Each structure stands twice: as C-alpha cells, then as structure tokens.
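Example record

One chain of 454 residues, shown exactly as stored in the release files.
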Amino acid sequence: MAGPADIAAVAAAAAASSAQPLAGRVAIVTGGSRGIGRAIAAHLSAMGASVVVGYSSSAAEAESLAASLPRAVAVRADVADESAVRSLFDAAESAFGSPPHILVANAGVLDDAYPTVAATSAASFDRVVGVNLRGAFLCLREAANRLPRGGEGGGRIVAVTSSVTGSHPTGYAAYTASKAAVEAMVRTMAKELKGTRITANCVAPGATATDMFFAGKSEETVRMYAETNPMERLGEPGDIAPVVGFLCTDAAEWVNGQVIRANGGRHRLRSLLADGAPAAGRQGGHRDVRVARHRPRQLRGRIRLPRGGGRVPGRRAVHAVAARADVADEAAVRALYGAAPPHILVVVACAGVMKADATLAATSAADFDANTRGAFLCLREAANRLRRGGGGRILAVTSSAVASLSPGFKAYAGSKAAVEAMVRGVAKELKGTRVTANCVAPGPVATTCWTYDI
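Predicted structure tokens for this chain:
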C-alpha cells in the first residue's frame, strides 16, 4: 500500500508532467516567424518542447523568436520545395539529436486582392496552392515517414487550415480550395497511420488579427468580422495556440482525424467581398431583386445526344470536334476553348488522374499536382467565356472519395475536395449571370481510371 510520501511523489510528478507535457519532444512549426505560427511556436516551447521555427522570408523575426526561447532554432525552408522540406526535418534532428515528434503545418499565403475565380491569374493560383496545399502535402508526407511510432507517446501532426472551408466566401476561391484539400488529406492520413499512435488533426481558425488577415481589407470589413462574431471581436493568435498545443500532447490521443474550428462560434460567414474587392460595409436601402420569369425546363438550343451519338430525331446534326489538351497547361486550356464553337453554354470539367493504393507517405509530388490546377484553369476559362443571361452551366466531376476519405486515395480525394470548394465559390461569384456551377461526385464506376491498380 502506498504511503503519504509515495502519493506526494506521484502528485509532484503529475504536476511537473502537466506543466511541461512536451518535455523531451521536438516540434517543427512551419510559418513560425509571424502571426499564428509565432504564437504556436512560443506556446509549444512553454510546454517544454524543443522548437524548430520554420520560415521562408522573415529571417529577422524568426531568429529573434528562436533566440528568446530556451530550446529553439530558426530554419529557412520553402515548404513548396521537396528538398527544402526534407532539409527542414534533417535540421530538426541535427539540432536536437532526435527526430521530430510534432509537426505543425502552418505556413500559408493569401492573395490579398481577393480576386474572383474569373479574375485569378494562374500565377496567383499556383502561389497559393503551392504553399498552402503542395507545401502542406510535402510536410505531411515527410512527417508520416519520419515521426517516431509507438512507444509511450505517439507523434502528433496538426495542420492549420481555415474556417472559410465551411463558408466559401467570394474572393477566396484558391485559398479555400487549398485549405479544404488539406483537411481531406489529414482526415485520410489519420486512417492510414493506424497502429502507429501518431494522430493527425486540423485546427481551422476564423478571422484572426494577423497581418495576413488585415491585408487588403477596409476598416469597415474588419469591423464587420468583429461585430458579427458571437464574441464581438476578432480572434488573436493566442486563442489558437492553446488549441494546437493540446492536440500535441499525450492527453489528446483520442482526438484523431478531426477538424477543430477555433472561430468564436461564427459558423457561417456572409460574403464580405464584392466584385473582387474588399467590401466597405453593407449599404442601406432595399436590394434590387429581379425575379426571372420561369421557363420550361428544357435545353433550348442545346442538343441531347441519344445513346450511340449520331443524329437526334427531328433535330439538326450534332456538331462535335475532338481537341487534345493538357488541362494543367494554361495555353492548352485557352486553345481548347478557342477550338470550341462560339457561344459555349456548357462546360464539364471531368479530366482527372488517380493512383490508387498509394499511402500519403508513398505519394509523389507529381501525382498530387495533377487534378486541381487543371480544374482551376478550366473553371476560370468557363467563368470568363460562358454566355451570360442565357443559362450557362458549369459541371465539375469530383468524387465520393471526398466524403469517404478511404486510405490510399488521399492525393485524389484532396484534389477533388479542392475542386468542390472552388466550385462553391464560383457559384457565388457568378451571381446575376444565370450561369450555374455544380459538382457531380461519382462513387466507384467501372472505368479504366477506377479499376487501374485496384
């Protein structure tokens, strides 16, 4: 039977453990020099972790933070670069003599011009997706291969996403798409890591007072975000860091494959952006709402093909051309639309590739990049070219894998989740044009794409 001295020793050990729950652990925080990432790095350090402050450009801020923490180093790394991510993990092991136990994938960028999909340049899309999505993928994959498994405490992976994945505000299409894809990847990854005691979760902040949030927004817009939140304020980086910190502890082992929205209770954000520019606040007066006269539901001027193609009885001959195009190539997509007859009314973005049965740890960067960029280029071209007022239609073929998140399909499911987020944003941006945008998400279908390698 334990005596008073034994009980006191156990209590003292428990208190010390709770004060420094991450003692002996090594944590990598990407995007750790500023904003939310800086607060997370400082918080993990206060919990006892040795911290690698990953940064891409803010060297002075990263170095000053590392110097202020008891066990920390600053390491420069472009997360969109495969070799740089590998070097980041190498640097952690070299600095602290141990492989990292924790990854916080926080690095992110935003186009502060808030363009609609129709106005988004390929360069802007590539930058946002390159850092937010490809960068997260490369970090997640490296963590899946290098974090220690089993033992007394498993590894911890936390990706910082965004609450915009649930609200789809206009002007954020590329950003929302990138973050939605990361959430799909992390949920899948949590299943793939079964048996390792490594957990994978997301924390999705709402409007948080950082330089990235304020960039390009008017004072009225910022005030609207604060006033419409149930807490009647913006979030602070210090509101997010403790949530991430908890997920990195052993006490959070039963929280796995989750997206935790840290947004003060604001679940549905109104669209605060109009015409691609930050809104200056809601104007008074009544909205001019025009109700269109209902027309019979038929494809006027559009041809329904019978099975086998050919002619439609009582109709003119179907006009069809075949055009080869790599949809991931901007010039090729433009040429594809140029080869089509004038007055395009329907666009179906169906092109896609899938490599089944590849875990995240074994997925190549090339396989991962294939679907999202091509869909974006086709959607953007459609948003600019489809005839307004005549009921244009945009359909993107995604996949039920987004909902099922089956192991072995994370790159595919992630890319399709990004497309679904973009399409929801496009549908809002095309308000008033009578152009609709929707997704069709098939389940398993007997095609060569589905049966390949399965």
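Notes: Residues 10-15, 269-317 have pLDDT under 50 and may be disordered.
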